[in-house]
Amino acid sequence: MPNTYFEARQWAFSYLSEADVNLILMTQHKWSYSQLILHLRDTMPDFEDFKTAVLRVRAGEPVQYVLGEAQFFGRTFMVDERVLIPRLETEELIELILNDSPITIQNVLDIGTGSGAIAVTLKSERPAWEITASDISAAALAVAQQNAANNDVKLEFIASDVFTNITESYDIIVSNPPYIAASETDIMDQNVLDYEPHLALFADNDGLAIYQAIARQLASYLAPNGRAYFEIGLHQGPAVAELMQQSLPQAQVDIIKDLSNHDRMIRVFNKQEKEL
Ligand SMILES: C[S@@+](CC[C@H](N)C(=O)[O-])C[C@H]1O[C@@H](n2cnc3c(N)ncnc32)[C@H](O)[C@@H]1O
Fold first, then answer.
1. pLDDT digit string (tens) for 188-226?
2. What separation in Å is there between the alpha carbon of 113 and the centre of ligand 1?
3. What does pTM read for this prediction?
4. 249 C-alpha to center of ligand 1: Å?
5. Rounded Cα gap, residues 206 and 108, in angstroms
6. Is 210 in the pocket of ligand 1 (CB under 6 A)?
7. Is the CB of residue 162 below 6 angstroms from any atom belonging to ligand 1?
8. Most Cβ neighbours (<10 Å): which of 106, 139, 156, 230?
9. Does the C-beta of 42 come closer than 6 Å to ligand 1?
10. 3-state secondary structure string, 92-123?
11. Which of 243, 196, 216 is nearest to 86 (CA)?
12. Which fold has domain 81-269?
């Protein structure tokens, strides 16, 4: 059995990447990377916990579920199999919204909030905004509520199938809905398929069903001069842009690329003609 953190790390390197090994040690001990390095020669009293985590990740479980948390936009989110693990691409959606919008009060709706990653982050970055987090999954909403509490922010929570239980209109509507088509199952990572909630991943109609449901009613819920933002799959830009343009013919609709130069976001600006 390894005696020190250094030896335990060497043992684990034969199973996992250095990044995952370090992440497990740092999370289990609440250490920064430099604290990990400082402790490497110390005797390790808790090898069994570390070993269990390493072997679970080795067996295919996402490291964030094993650790019970994920990092998103510099904050810690509790995650488990009730919610999607927040992705780096979604941080770009946050950047886009923050760069576009004033810091003054905005009424915001996050559709399909999952872990609450988007809603909690926007509220943390823009405390004046009033943010409603909604999801069709009561189990996901429970995780989002926990993450709001853990990050000391107050949100409104509504269980809703898209707009079904939504009554207000919003200055900003954001959604990272499920957008994977059933036909894409073959090219997906096995650990995503095995562990992440399929309700958060897959949508009917080639992955477009939730965008279609949103587009059907967007005109009733997006305030004049409001903006809607959607994360999309990399081949969905033209189709989602067309759906939104049909829904709001006067709106300016942009397809926006991510840092990897893939179509990744749609922005809908519900601009209103100035009255003469
Ligand atoms: C891709 S996950 C996004 C989670 C989180 N917003 C994020 O960006 O990490 C999609 C979320 O949409 C929810 N969802 C699926 N169908 C829905 C529907 N018809 N109405 C509302 N939410 C839905 C799922 O439960 C899941 O939490």
1. 999 999 999 999 999 999 999 999 999 999 999 999 999
2. 6
3. 0.96
4. 26
5. 28
6. yes
7. yes
8. 230
9. no
10. HHHHHHHHHCCCCCCEEEEECCCCCHHHHHHH
11. 196
12. Rossmann fold (3.40.50)
